[in-house]
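The aim of this short unit is practical: by the end, you should be able to scan a pair of folded records and say something sensible about each. We start with the first protein, listed as its amino acid sequence and then its structure tokens.
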Amino acid sequence: MTEFFPEGILLNTSENKAATSSLAALYEAMYKQKILEGRAVMCSKEHDLIVDLGGIRGVIPREEGALGIREGYVRDIAVITRVNRPVSFVVTDISDNKNVRLSRRLAQQLCSDNYISRLVPGDIINARITHFESFGAFADIGCGTAALLPISNMSVSRINHPSERFSVGEDIKAIVSSTENGRICLSHKELLGTWEENASRFEIGQTVTGVIRSIESYGAFVELTPNLAGLAELKSGIRVGMQVSVYIKNIIPEKMKVKLIIIDSFESETNKPQNTGYFFTGTKINRFTYSPECCSRVIETVFI
């Protein structure tokens, strides 16, 4: 069974290098409709993409540059922005003068028909972050097909911008949260552990690092992990995004609270917490309950 990946995953694999190493290998890939990858080195004035195939010149005509360009609902910027980036493609023709014609559109169509159209809520998939908007991050989930990861779905701990959680080009796991009208929406926080799983990493009396995510009149919320924040007493000089060292005063599972005291604050080049990895590593999740059983407040996500 063919596997489909975000663009760039296959580029440097031995299998992809072998399949693009010669005309004979490209002929074989063409007859098998095999999805390959190469780096786009130029976009012509006609918006054709020129792809480096290790000394062989590949061309993706404008209308083959992305699914939807031919039909008019995708703009040419989808092609132009691929310059100096990996592109997925299927070989469609090799002429006598050794020009190799490629189609990214066909690769995306194969991905859509055989993979993306079959996804259902709760499926856990590979994704690669491509760019940010204030409301979320867009991720490539296969052959350049974009899905939205809303900022509210990134973690339990709230952030002001997706760049506080991810980096462009970062490979992540994500959960399909909806597939309405053929558009895939993603979630991420359910992979980062329950309140109890995150709180178990800490003990009363420890001093640890965190990131200030919000400051209210009654205290500052400090993120200890992406799915765990505590409330600290206010201290002069602190601001949102600043890293702090905090003393853990109390951990209260019944109320899902962690009480903190800010010991020190400092500037840092990044306001991302230390990566704690994924607690859930399966391929399908139907229900996620964040709150402890002993807590009267129930926080959960049901994927249907």
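Turning to the second protein, read its sequence before its tokens, just as you did above.
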Amino acid sequence: MEPLASKSRPESPLEVKETVVLGGGCFWCTEAVFKMLKGVISVEPGYAGGEARTATYEQVSRGDTGHVEVAKIEYDPNRLAFEELLGVFFAAHDPTTLNRQGNDVGPQYASVIFYTTESQQKKAENYIAALNKRYGNRIVTKITPFKEFFPAENYHRNYYEAHKDAPYCELVIAPKLEKVEEKFSGLVREDT
């Protein structure tokens, strides 16, 4: 089976493209989850949110750049609603733990939504408000305007597809993908 990244669809005149940048722990997980979804045009792992003028894996891993591991997601809102993206995002990671996802600990693993439109901001705020009612104001996900994205090094791209047999992929990423497939089966591409 070809990696999903190589199956990019050509843009049609009717296709609309919107971008959101999400941090939900390790970007290997976030990338793999969102590549599964219908209406997602592209997913690119990288770094965002910090004040440092550069970002490499080594720099960000130290936890002192202010950058977060993220996935830049381009999607067609006519095929995948922003609220559906949020549903998958919040189901695929724990938004109640500050700067931590499982064994991945540090500010680079923060839960954050970098919005690119006012509509995304408002929808994210409403979504989190509803979750906080359900979970007692425990959601720590930040909502912040998107400023700059630094692409991850090539060896981080399509990580799950290239390393499915690696322990991290089997123990951490695969269960997240299974959870998303079960809970959001109508949103998942048939070729996953």
